[in-house]
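Field notebook, page 326. I keep forgetting to write these up properly, so this time I am using the form the group agreed on. The chain and the ligand, NAI, are recorded exactly as supplied. Prediction of the bound pose follows.
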Amino acid sequence: MESIRLAFFDTKPYDRVWFDQLNTHYTIKYFEHKLNEDSVSLARGCRAVIPFVNDTLNAAVIDALCAEGVEMIAMRCAGYNNVDRHAAKNRIPVVRVPGYSPYAVAEFTAGLLLTLNRKIHKAYARTRDFNFSLNGLVGFDLHGRTVGVIGTGKIGQIFIRICKGFGMNVLAYDPYPLENADFSYVSLEELLQKSDIISLHCPLTEQTKHIINQDSIAQMKDGAILLNTSRGMLVESEALLEALKNGKLAGAGLDVYEEETEFFFEDRSDMVKRDTILSLLVSMPNVVLTSHQAFLTTEALHNIAKVTLENLDAFFQNGQVQNSIQ
Ligand code: NAI
């Protein structure tokens, strides 16, 4: 029997390693292109597509996938804000990898915080230039500071544990709080007002889009630090830029950006026509910005491949839709 063909979009060499090792019976077509209206025809002849975080799965793309006879959309990521669920409903199953390594993202968030606060990014650049001055590198002890965690799911809980290890006080906000949590839930307003550091670990939804905006920033402590390793659209970038420029915020650690799709995962160093806000953010000394990298550990890549292949096997071998987003 001919093996089932799969179309992977937005793939890089590091994506392929574990899929190639674990795959035993699928024919995989790896495309570097992102999935969108222009590239969707590449899925012709494939029974499933395997998109990533910055692929476009709007109604037009889903219509085209259905017209091509694609039977499943198997996201190889946890977030699915880029999928038009309404368009897919009752037409094509959409599955995902719900939690491939919450440690990867939580640990990276802690890394952004330490880098930003202790100015390790500056020190690294200085010492490479044989500049051993400490001027301008003063940080603060995390011990005793208050961190506000928005979203206490898998990643948020691990980040909280890490913060507790540093001796920080934790405030949390989540509309679905955990029972018996060993940290305090407060309203979003109280969290914004009392936190020295605010870290976003909620999904991007209608309710959370621009949860950090001009108004919420105005409620924050002067000199607060914002960390976002969740989704770019959670933060209104213009308001963030303004707050970083006028000193309301002391710094931002960002692994995601509102308009990242065109830039992230790619080498755009030759690009002249650049996104103005992104250009300004990366040029600021109090911003550490990375390219949606928080997930990138060996363990996470292994788990992504394993669970994606299990999701596909469940469907193609047993007719089951597991880890559905619908
Ligand atoms: P999860 O589903 O385990 O937890 C999300 C939490 O957010 C839940 O407790 C939920 O109740 C809460 N939440 C929902 N609406 C909220 C609201 N309006 N305000 C506050 N909290 C709200 O998800 P997990 O695995 O912890 O991931 C969190 C996010 O991290 C994902 O949605 C994804 O966007 C992002 N992510 C980023 C990665 C990266 O490489 N930078 C990799 C993986 C995930």
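OBSERVATIONS:
- The chain is about 35% helix and 15% strand.
- Residues 78-79, 99, 102, 105, 150-156, 173-176, 201-205, 207-208, 229-231, 255-256, 292, 294-295 surround NAI (CB under 6 Å).
FOLLOW-UP: compare against the apo run.
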